[in-house]
Amino acid sequence: MLELFGEINWFIVLWLVVVVVFLAVELATVTLTSIWFAAGGLIALFVAMAGGNFAFQMIAFLIAAFGMFFATKPLADKMMKTSKTSTNADRAIGEEVRVLERISNLDQTGMVVVHGQEWTARTEDDKNIIEQGALVRILRISGVKVIVERVKED
Predict the structure, then answer these.
(1) pLDDT tens readout for residues 35-71
(2) Residue 62 belongs to what domain range?
(3) Boundary of a domain, candidates 53, 80, 107
(4) Residue 72 has what pLDDT?
């Protein structure tokens, strides 16, 4: 069957494989990390088809891949930038509120009111118990719970 195609140029096969592998990686990740190398492989493939030696193919691959990478990466990053969308709940971080129900991680109890809404409250460690009426600071939000620490009252 190989006689039908004549002598195989293995460099062309190599660059085809390089292009396919980098495109497959790009399709699997969709993070614009390997598309430039697929394009560089395509340029090297054309050089191989034109009869360029392997050194010239590698140089073409490297210049094309890294040239496109450095030329387009900032624009690609800007277009793909995902920003964190703040929610109203994010405003609660750092606020000080009163404990509505005793906070005990071991007993799985604890409640505070934040902006008129009741939130399940927990501390950072299981040993820390905070009694009802104490003043606490919201450290972070974890799912549907606020993580708090006791505030020393004057």
Answers:
(1) 899 999 999 999 999 999 999 999 999 999 999 889 8
(2) 8-80
(3) 80
(4) 85
- Which band of pLDDT confidence, cut at 50, 70 and 90, is reported for residue 152? confident
pTM of the predicted structure, to 2 decimals: 0.49
Asked whether residue 138 is assigned to any structural domain, the reply reads yes
17 and 76 belong to one structural domain: yes
Confidence of residue 83 (pLDDT cuts 50, 70, 90): low
Q: Structurally, how many domains does the chain consist of?
A: 2
CB 44 within 8 A of CB 61: yes
The verdict on residue 122 lying in a domain is yes
Beta strands 117-123; 109-114: pairing state: antiparallel
